[in-house]
Structures are given as C-alpha cells and as structure tokens.
Amino acid sequence: MMPLVFSEVGKENIIRKIGGTEEVKRHLENLGFVPGGSVTVINSLNGNVIVKVKESRIAINEDLARRIMI
Question: Which residues contact 60 (CB under 8 A, 6 or more apart)?
C-alpha cells in the first residue's frame, strides 16, 4: 500500500484506504474517491496530481493525494 502521489502516470489503481479527518474523508468521498474504486493518475507535477475517477478528471493537491492509499 502506498499514497496516490507515488503512483505511475497512466496506471489504473484500486483505492485501498482514505486517511485524514472525517471532514477530509467526506470531501474525498464526495469527489468519488471511495475504497474499492479505481483511480488513474493522468498527470503529476510537484506532487499535485490530475486523476481520472468515475469517468471524471479531478485535480487534487499533494496533501490530499497523500491521504489516498492505493
């Protein structure tokens, strides 16, 4: 298990766990990041990532990407 921020670009991953406070977990869940769901890193720049989750592209900062474990 590793944080999403370390994923290879273009590789599809399965979300294993979401860390952080309840507020952060709820925010990520509302964006579509749920355990068991798939996520693909489209691009990565200085730790910030653009991901594809549930047929949508979402940009998240490094702090949130470190809370998503794959």
Answer: 31, 48, 49, 51
pLDDT for 50: 96
The count of C-alpha atoms lying within 13 angstroms of the C-alpha of 35, restricted to the half-sphere facing its C-beta, is 9
Encode pLDDT of 6-53 as tens digits: 999 999 999 999 999 999 999 999 999 999 999 999 999 988 999 999
The DSSP string of the chain is --BGGGSPTT-EEE--EE-S-HHHHHHHHHHT--TT-EEEEEEEETTEEEEEETTEEEEE-HHHHHHEE-
Q: Phi, psi (5° rounding) for residue 34?
A: -130, 145
- pTM of this prediction exceeds 0.85: yes
How far is residue 8's CA from residue 49's CA, in Å, rounded to a whole number?
11
